[in-house]
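Thread: quick sanity check before group meeting

JM: Hey all, I'm pulling together slides for Thursday and realized we never actually wrote out the predicted structure for the chain we discussed last week. Dropping the sequence here so it's in one place. If anyone has concerns about the input, flag it before I start.
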Amino acid sequence: MFPWLFNYAPQYQLPWSGNWAQTIDPDTSFFSSIKPGAGVGEIERKATDVASYGSQLGWLAEILLANDVDERGVPTVSAEDVASARLKLRTAYKKIRQIKEQNQADVRQSALTALERLRKSDPAGYSLVLRMAALEAPAAEASGALTSATKAIARRNRTSP
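JM (edit): ok, ran it. Output follows.
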């Protein structure tokens, strides 16, 4: 086309016809809706990556039905299936326990990092938090709920000015 005829060949841009991009990523996962008292959504998501709820329930059902027989006296679940289910359940249990322990370590580290940031940015607020924690510490120490790292931090803070 000749450059001087551009007026006779206009380009129209209707809505949604241009160069655009939109990321649509709603958080529709089941795990984000877990109530805080019922469990930790992140742990639940990782646990179902190890084994889905359905497979975990299936393994438990096979183990529970190990001694069950139908009306003809035939075992409901074979001994091989029960042994396989036990092995799978043990393996999943160990992996999920490791996930929970790692999550606890991550939460503790996050708390320590947050306390350190608070100490540097707001010494008065840091002292207030420590005093509040000291009020709860005797009961927690008596119940054995404090870890050695938490106890070390509490001792260090009691001796610091």
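AS: nice. Residues 104 and 110 are 10 Å apart (CA to CA). Helices lie at 41-50, 53-64, 79-121, 123-143, 148-159.
JM: adding both to the slides.
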